[in-house]
Amino acid sequence: MTSMFFSALLAALAAPNVVVISVDTLRADHMGVYGFAHNTTPHLDQLAATSLLFEDALCEQPQTGPSLMAMFSSRLPRVTGAIRNGVPLPPTTPTAAMVFQDAGYDTAAIVSNWNLKVKLSGLDRGFAHYDADFGKRWWGRERHEMTADVVTDRALAWLEARDEEKPFFFWVHYMDPHAPYKNKRGFAEQLHGGNRVKKQRIDSPEARYQTEIAFADQQIARLLAALPKEDTYILFTADHGESLGNHNYWGHTRYIYQNSMHIPLFISGPGIEAGRSAAPVRGIDIAPTLLGLAGLSPLPTMTGMNLMEQQPAADAVRVVETYGGSVPKGENVREALATRPPRRQAIIQSGWKFIRNEEGSRELYHLTEDPGEEHNLIDSQVERANALEAQLETWHQQTPRNQASANDLSEEDLRMLEAQGYL
Ligand SMILES: [Zn+2]
């Protein structure tokens, strides 16, 4: 891709449609196009084959709300104060959707995760249509997600009814790979191939997780088929990954290992040549990139890069954090959600990653040789670790930490956060 060609092409397009498709809890390394051995994502792999794909994209935090709020506002969670699920983006922080709306776009979002509900995320601002309605209780249990078939049905209904005179900005968020992992039937052949399937493998949590991805992929294919073939850009990503038993942990939120932080990211559309970039990109780059696809300028508040114009240098520094984990007994939950210090922080540069944990322990990994972060080199690479920690500490001192409020949370919201393991 040459950026001059890309700019000229943008000028020739009136105002292109821009679509964001995101899948909750989708580890990059569980997609074929990122090297996974099982055929989880045939349709997304096909889309990726015509896209500019980023091999090394990280989310800012391994949690739905903070990650997506950072993506759409291009501001770090600690800077907006939106550091946990249930702590919404402050009204003073503008998002990409607001810019699209101001530019005359029709804007819509179909989201399927409880944490994206209006008062928990504040992400509805700028969307003329924001569908986060999961319906009523079902068999006496609260629903906290919509399945991919329902999400696609609603997305298709919106596309059908939209005002065709206007270009549109459309975000569709799928939830299926998030726990609990259910066994979606009909994918054994696709994933494991005919007779070699062993029942034990199909019944494992890992195997069930794979069927949830395959189901989302199948339903996303219906959405892709319904999108206009011309003048439409598609950005595909995930909010975070999943531990899946690595480091003796199954979920996301608690740790900041690559299994939770490495996300898929690829962009297709007019003038974009298929290719792969190894640039160290991040969640906050998404909003300026989306706006750039439509020829719109990023807001002065946005801190990431338009990746179609510019990409970070190979030795660029990234810092990620998590504030997740349980709230100690006796603490006011609403207050603790908004005010807790970071539980873990990591600095990543040129294939090395240093982690500092709340309890004082330190870890160092050579990601290039040890992508699974299994060999902690903290004792053998003391100087390197100290240098990275000094850089992390400088960042920590110099990056302001603001405070948002979780006061709008109802008892039902708190129950839902607890049920999902976020408290
Ligand atoms: Zn999530």
Secondary-structure element order, N to C: HEHEEHHHEHEHEHHHEHEEEEHEHEEEHH
Bound molecules: zinc ion
Compute the separation of the termini in Å: 44 Å
Summed up, the domain count is: 2
- Based on DSSP secondary structure assignment, what is the total number of beta strands? 15
Strand line-up of the largest beta sheet: 5-4-6-1-7-9-2-10
Approximate helicity band? 25-40%
Mean pLDDT rating:
91
Helices, by number, come to 15
The CATH class of the largest domain is: Alpha Beta
Rg computed from alpha carbons, rounded to a whole number of angstroms: 21 Å
Helix vs. strand class: alpha/beta
The CATH homologous superfamily of the largest domain corresponds to: Alkaline Phosphatase, subunit A
Cα shape: globular
Keywords:
alpha/beta; Alkaline Phosphatase, subunit A; 2 domains; 32% helix; binds zinc ion
Note down, in words, how this protein is organized.
This protein has helices at 3-12, 42-49, 64-73, 77-80, 96-102, 118-121, 148-161, 188-192, 199-203, 205-226, 258-261, 286-293, 333-339, 382-398, 411-419; strands at 17-23, 52-54, 57-58, 106-110, 129-131, 168-174, 232-238, 262-263, 265-268, 275-277, 281-282, 318-322, 344-349, 352-357, 362-366. It is built from 15 helices and 15 strands. The mean pLDDT is 91. The protein is globular. The strands form 3 sheets. The chain has an 8-stranded mixed β-sheet, with helices on both faces. Helix 7 (148-161) runs parallel beside helix 10. The chain has 2 domains: 3-313, Alkaline Phosphatase, subunit A (3-Layer(aba) Sandwich); 319-419, Arylsulfatase, C-terminal domain (2-Layer Sandwich). Helix content is 32%, strand content 16%. The protein has 423 residues and is of the alpha/beta class. Strand 14 and strand 15 (362-366) form a beta hairpin. The longest helix has 22 residues, at 205-226. 48% of the residues are buried. Zinc ion binds next to loops.
